[in-house]
Amino acid sequence: MSRLGDLLQTERLRHKMTAKQVAKKAGVSEKYLIEVESGKRIIADDQARRILKLIGLTEQTESNFSLDDIAATVDLSAASPLIEQEVKKLPKEKLKPVASAGDGAESGIWLDALAGVLKRVPVYNAVMKEVEHKVLPVLNGKIENAAAEKVFYFLSPDDSMRGFRIYSGDLALIVPAQSPIEDAIMLVEANERRALRKVRKQDATHVLLQSFGREYNAEVLPIPDVKFLGRAVRLEIELG
Questions:
Q1: Which of 37, 184, 198, 238 has its CA 20 to 30 A from that of 103?
Q2: Quick one: pLDDT at residue 105?
Q3: Which residue, among 232, 118, 220, 217, has the nearest Cα to 173 in the 3D structure?
Q4: Which CATH superfamily is domain 119-236 in?
């Protein structure tokens, strides 16, 4: 089952609507809808959003996740045990029956629960200004074994790390680290500039910061002169 198909079926059943009722509202055939829900047919994102709205799901949840965020991130079948746990933690008023479709229904109960299993992770540029965000799954309050609220993406500003396969526009997921980690790619601040660099310890007091653009470059600095902002643990690239 596809994520969008799973989402459509989840909301349809939650609103106690048949595939025939939803298909009629959406102006599609019942067979088409069933095939989308079962993953046999692919549905365009905009059409899925339109059908979800007709069912009664709002475009934006209270936690500020859009339908696109959720569809791109959540494997509902895998997430359902976590969602179930989070639903149990919800205040009683959240568990009241939801209004029927067309009555301005609030986001589904399970979407409220997603606040406990998803996190909007900011994407920062070289001056640490947030330029966008990504939504990542959270496990036991952590992302990549780090506190979820302290994790962020850094947008590579140039090709100075291309020798390490990091290009301008790539996104490095950064987890907290305040001291040098041997042979790690780290986000550092030195000489009034923030950048990704490969780190090596020279001795107890100095560190080697390596870059590799058109040519290899290494700079030796006293450790106190370098601010270590975190370690890059994952890289996301744009294709095409």
A1: 37
A2: 40
A3: 232
A4: Umud Fragment, subunit A (2.10.109.10)
